[in-house]
Design brief:
The chain has 233 residues and is mainly alpha-helical. 78% of the residues lie in helices and 5% in strands. It has helices spanning 3-83, 88-169, 175-184, 208-215; strands spanning 191-195, 198-199, 220-221, 228-230. Strands 2-1-4-3 form a four-stranded mixed β-sheet. A hairpin with a 6-residue loop joins strand 3 (220-221) and strand 4. Helix 1 runs antiparallel to helix 2. The longest helix has 82 residues, at 88-169.
């Protein structure tokens, strides 16, 4: 076997194992990135919900105040009307209507007063929650940016090693390379080095004669798992 073929196989094995590690790491980063992006979406939705709730609270105050004003205006109009009435019957009916409006207005004033009493506390709580959520959003955006950068580095390294692998395979032929390519479609590590006089893939013991061949840069197949074995000095 040519030493070039041995070196190509060693390079291929290194590329494939490194690619396996990098792709696994990239997958974990992608999953973490998706998780952080999900958190960011949740924070944004929570922020929008709090802003909407506070807006509705202020809107309710405006509606209640407007109704109170309408009651007051209606009462004023009736009082003017009463002052111009001459019929005792109409006067009594209008007076009763004014009394009813006064009762409603009094209850409405209590509602508006209660809303304004709770407003300062509600406003303080609103701003505190907004600040907390915005801080969370800023923090998760930093994490997202870091993860995106890390993923871009991993992607670039994967592309570089993948191209190195393709370049190493150009015009390369040989039985061992063909065997490696066939096995690589089935298992992640078709070529492993000898470790402690055994296959580092399955720990199967290698006999002394085969060990000598391996030490002289020969390639063998493991008799147990059939991986390609090489001696790593």
């Amino acid at each position: 076997m040519r030493s070039t073929e041995l070196q190509v196989l060693v390079d291929l094995a290194w590329c494939d194992q490194r690619l396996l590690v990098l792709r696994h790491e990239a997958y974990k980063v992608q999953q973490e990135l998706l998780e952080k992006q999900h958190f960011h979406t949740q924070f944004q939705e929570h922020l929008s919900a709090i802003q909407y709730e506070f807006h509705q609270f202020k809107k309710d105050i405006d509606v209640q105040e407007r109704y109170l004003q309408e009651l007051q205006e209606k009462e004023d109009v009736l009082k003017i009307k009463i002052s111009n009435l001459r019929s005792p019957k109409e006067y009594a009916a209008s007076l009763k209507e004014v009394e009813n409006i006064e009762q409603i207005r009094s209850a409405q004033e209590a509602i508006v007063l209660q809303l304004w009493e709770t407003f300062p506390e509600t406003e303080v709580k609103y701003h505190q929650e907004i600040k907390t959520i915005q801080q969370s959003i800023e923090a998760v955006l930093v994490l997202i940016k870091n993860l995106e950068y890390k993923l871009s580095l991993l992607t670039a390294e994967i592309e570089k090693i993948d191209q190195t692998r393709k370049d190493a395979m150009i015009d390369m032929q040989g039985d061992w390379i063909s065997l490696y390519s066939t096995m690589h479609r089935k298992i992640a590590n078709p070529m492993v080095h000898v470790r402690d006089q055994g296959c580092s893939g399955c720990s199967y013991a290698i006999n002394p004669l085969d060990m000598q061949l391996l030490q002289h840069k020969k390639l063998l197949q493991c008799q147990n798992c059939y991986r390609i074995l090489f001696y790593k000095e």
